[in-house]
Design a protein that fits this description.
about 80 residues; 3 strands; Putative regulatory protein FmdB zinc ribbon domain-containing protein; 2 domains; Regulatory_FmdB_Zinc_ribbon; Rubrerythrin, domain 2
Length: about 80
């Protein structure tokens, strides 16, 4: 699926957006600005046994800790390592 992370240069909002082609115009979902930058993001890889079929708080991040306790730096990072 063509999902990309974008950073709005005007308001600082980061959002994941569905983009079907390079010709699609992307706007910030918070402020409506077209001044957005595509971010590089890594896919999520689970290292533990999921508690259900859907990802959630019981799952583990790529470093073996739950995402809320791994010290992750943000979207696309793994345990604070960019």
């Amino acid at each position: 699926m063509p999902l990309f992370d974008f950073l709005c240069a005007d308001c600082g909002h980061v959002a994941e957006m569905l983009v079907f082609s390079d010709e699609t115009t992307v706007h910030c979902e918070r402020c409506g600005s077209g001044n957005v930058k595509k971010l590089m993001a890594a896919h999520s890889s689970l290292s533990g046994t999921p508690s259900s079929a859907m990802p959630g708080p019981g799952d583990t991040a790529c470093c073996g800790s739950s995402p809320g306790h791994a010290g992750c730096a943000g979207p696309g990072s793994c345990c604070g390592k960019a």
